[in-house]
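--- STAGE predict ---
source: upstream dedup step, 1 unique chain passed
mode: sequence only
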Amino acid sequence: MKRTFDILVSAVGLALLAPLLFLLAVLVKLDSPGPVFYRGVRVGRGFKRFRVFKFRSMVTGAAVVREVPASRDDPRVTRVGRLLRKYKLDELPNLINVLLGQMSIVGPRPEAVFLTEEYTEEERLILSVRPGITDFASVEFGNQQELIGGGDPLGEFRSRILPRKNALRLKYVRERSFWIDLRIILATARLVLLRAVKR
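--- STAGE serialize ---
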């Protein structure tokens, strides 16, 4: 049932959002040189790697060596990228990954390969389900970029944020149900709407 839901929502979502996606693609292209999409490698269910579809929100080459989380006033983030990140619009192309069966609408957000390789034995349980566009951690850390300083963003992310995120991801894996998915979807929508109102 969850996979059927994912296919229906992603297909309908891509069709309805096509004009917005096209507009955002044009804005990304006009704002800075480089591709429209960011195609970073992520780790999905069963440790299977895939390339995620996201609108590029950073300058080209920002993640050449290692994907360091964005921090407050991060110079790598473009002008359009700041808008995309604030309202989670950069993640809309994740719907393509959902349609392809690599992701789900709701599920643990996938991490970069090098961070996933550091998971404890318990945390590897996270990779027993399809990763998702949103989850408990996405809602709780909706303002993640504002929480990370510019000194050592990767160190801060590893020590302060990732452990809590993984705890929430494990919570989802152990308690997941249709009603929990619905609750997370509504909480995510509320978060985005509140940000729009506070603009």
